[in-house]
Amino acid sequence: MVRLRVEFTTEPFDLDEAPAHAVVAREVIQSAELDAVDVGPFGNTAEGGADAVLTAVDELLRKALDAGATRVSLQVNVIGEGGEDEK
């Protein structure tokens, strides 16, 4: 099984409190069936099987844009197969 890592941010930024689109995006990632999730104020990362990551990315994009995001930056990397990182 191919494993993926997704890194993403949503904009516009608000340093005083997390905007609705950022909260929604984090909720999608945290509730998805992913192996590793790291959320932070300036970027978020998640890892898992390809199907789970791609499903989460689809939902994340739709919900973040619906919640007011004007830009979503993301990067998806293949990190290995069968749980092993490729070097």
Features:
Thiamine-binding protein domain-containing protein, 87 residues, five-stranded antiparallel beta sheet, alpha+beta, MTH1187/YkoF-like
Walk me through what this model shows.
With 87 residues, the chain is an alpha+beta fold. Helix content is 33%, strand content 38%. The chain has two helices and five strands, in the order E-H-E-E-H-E-E. It has a five-stranded antiparallel β-sheet, covered by helices on one side. Helix 1 (20-31) runs antiparallel to helix 2 (50-66). It is elongated, with a radius of gyration of 13 Å. Mean pLDDT is 90; it is low at 83-87. This is Thiamine-binding protein domain-containing protein. It comes from Streptomyces filamentosus (Streptomyces roseosporus).
